[in-house]
Write the structure tokens for this entry.
Amino acid sequence: MFWETEPGTEIRPQSELPDPKEGVDEPEVFAGFLDAVRWGAIASADPSAFQSPFRAGIDIEDYQLLPLVKALRMPRVNLLIADDVGLGKTVEAGLIAQELVLRNQAQKILVVCPPSLCLKWQREMREQFGLEFEIVDTAHVHRLRRERGVGVNPFRSHPRLIVSMEWIKFESQMRWFDEFLPPDPNIYPRAFDLLIVDEAHRIAPAAVGKYARDSLRTKVMRRLAPHFEHRLFLTATPHNGYPESFQALLEMLDPNRFTKGVPPSARERDAVMVRRLKSHLRMVLDDGEQRFPERRITAIEVAFPPEEQELFDLLDRYSCLRAGSANTPAERAASRFIALLLKKRLLSSPAAFKHTLDEHMKTLEAASRRPITEQLVEQAAAALDDEADDTARVSEQEQEALALVAGVLADEDKSPRAGDSTAPSDAAPSVLDQMRVLADERYRRADARASRLLDWIAETCFPDGNWNDERVIVFTEYRATLDYLDELLAAPRPGWPSMTGRVEVFHGSLGAEDRERIIREFNYNPLKTKVRVLLATDAASEGIDLHLACHRLVHMEVPFNPNRMEQRNGRIDRHGQRSGTVDIFHFAAATGEDHALGEDHAFLSRLATKVNDIRDDLGSVSSVLAERVEARMLRERNPGLDVDGLITDWHDRARTDLERLKQEFTADIARVREQYGASVEELRLTPASVQRSVQVALRIEDQPPLRPSTLDRPDGPVQVFQIDDLAGTWGETLAGLQNEVEDFRLPVTFDPEIANGHHDVAYLHVGHPLVARCLRTLRAQVWGAAVDRKIDRVAVRYADIEEPVAVGHARIVVNGSDGTTLDEVIEPAAVRVGGRRGRLNVGETRAAVTSAAADPVPDHVQGLYADQWDRVRGPLEQALETRAQDVLDQRNRRMDAKRADEEARLRGTLTDLQASIQRRLDELEQSEHVEQLRLFDTGERQQFDVDVQALRDRIGRIGDDIDKEVEILQRRYEVRDVRWFPVGVEFLIPEDTR
């Protein structure tokens, strides 16, 4: 382009106040435009105001705002959200992430979660918060390479990413991070802004043996976490019973407060941790019983036939033979592993037992003696227990574990011991053969529990022979049991209705589309979808919501680890459950069953009931409890392993002073509600104002308008809107409004009360793609020359004032020394237009603007005030300049105070940590703990030595860390200048001049 030859060229300032003589908007249009601009400015320096709750398409509870309030008061967000299962940790994390994005404090975000939750995180962040995330996996990498070349780095391809913790834990994936992560993670700004880890207990060191050792997941997070400015860890079970493991988790979250090997103080722990339980909220909230239904635990009684008792007795005999002949630690560990594995499978189903028994016998026959340690056996057992079983017969992980222990047991079966008539070489093969015969006979027939389950499903879902609207979930640990039950349910039975489409199976090997379809249809209105029974493995026990149309859940087997059982229960015992009760079922022996099989089921039944009583602190006791359950099931008669006594003691110790809790919680909730109300008032975010802005944007873009409509409901009709097809790229904003089950476009509402708890309408919040597009369209009008101007940005409005005033609205931006935006606000300044001169003070200006109406003003009146522009323009610009300087002075004082406060807290925190580490090192030098650790196996001893050296290194770095952190704080809060950018002009005239 040649400037000299272009027609109609002119030089304009970068931005200027609009001239009323060029055009005046209708008051309604100006009000919608001004709201859009106001909502786009974020007061990032003010922790008392927030916007993310208004940009979320969900029913937000007041208690879910507490983590957000706590996070905004942190100089660096390091927060462990450890709320109970089903209270909405994902929502709480999304609110914080959205707020940090809005405040320009987080652009590069990484979510790390279990594989089964990647799609859920992507969907919920998009639909609930309007945040787009890319899932990085092998398929994504291959696609990127095809599109951008083989040298592309997937972790630099998008600012917001989701990755599976199982995929990222390998060195091949970590090499991509090594390409751009700096050697020193304390370089500011850091490589990433926000790290979110879901199910964060999985990254804690593995609880195997006597000392917690770093897993692959732990090592990866230790490398990655320091490169993130903010960190959010989410887990319902933060403590696995191993103090070192919990300390390591806290250290990854906030190394300035915690370090592994040093017990955290209650004060420091509470500073970063948020933990609420449904049982507490039921009691401390006024409407707690309505928000959180009562959980009922019920046993389904079963009478076990003699042939099942025989197989169970044979397994006990085989386990006893193995235990009795084991001499070395490795042999004892291997024998114990086999006994537990077969016992768990038999307590699940004949099919699960047969497949594992066959694999055990096959590996024994092919095994040769190998030098294997006790540690390797324990690690194999822990790895198998950590993974959900989603292989139809025997998983690869289980095959490897069975082959490993077979190498330990090989000599036992091939070398009889003199004088030992109970050696496995004499009796075990015979017992194995007897078990195989019985297993082969029964593995495809319904055992007593499966038969009782089928009867219970019939009683619940089709008592009169026809399907009703009730839904049930049946959980099992094993895919083999899942397939076994699916086959039994599919078989024709006299008097049963057709099962076609009524039963769905959910396991980790399902494709993403099938998973989403099953969840969607199971949660949908039962009058519209056929599914009634969901058979699920533990792949569905983490992070999946199944509560919208179901309140009954059956445990096919009671897991020995109570955390796993609680995770399952949390699929239906969640915020948003509509039933007054959540009903949990498990199996128990019928009265009078005094054989070993009946006793074990009676014990597990008591366990299921009593574990529910200690949900308050289940994480802290789960590992200890699981160990005692295993010992009890293996008949290890040790009085010190009493399970009932442990539960009783823990229940007594975990009792909370509910009156104190209620007082504290009531005060917190009151502050949150006050802060929420203040934000609503400051932003003027009402359903009517959002609706107005959307209508204005659609109008100026020549898109079809919203059509008022009525939605009939049992409690009366409600007013909603219908949206027609939008042209061009606007059509993409309607994608989330389609009902995917019945394939129609939902009506919409801007009122959260109309949407709350209902699925017949879509809620258009400020962050919804359609609303966000409308607001961006209106805000773009500020720059005039950059777009085709469709709004004049000028209005004449009536207001509750005594004399006419001209009001200029400006976007005032406070910049930091490094060029970042420290604060951004939309501020008005006003000057008088009548006989008196001078500008209004801040309070008078805000009162005048707030009272402005959107009623039409006659054209001739608008013209009278437009003619005054040349006279008031100069004073108005001066008033805006003065207001900008006032804002700068206020922010300077606020930033100075905030920096001083945070520096003092930082120095105190790191000094306390230094003292705590030194005390811990002194204790280790003077105690017997070090001597005891020398008795551990090599891996545990090495891990301990590494941790102790890390303590020494950490204490030596604290002085440097203080200097670095103080320097970062000074740069973060150093104010450079203030700039203001004109937004719009309005003339306010007294109401009595109408």
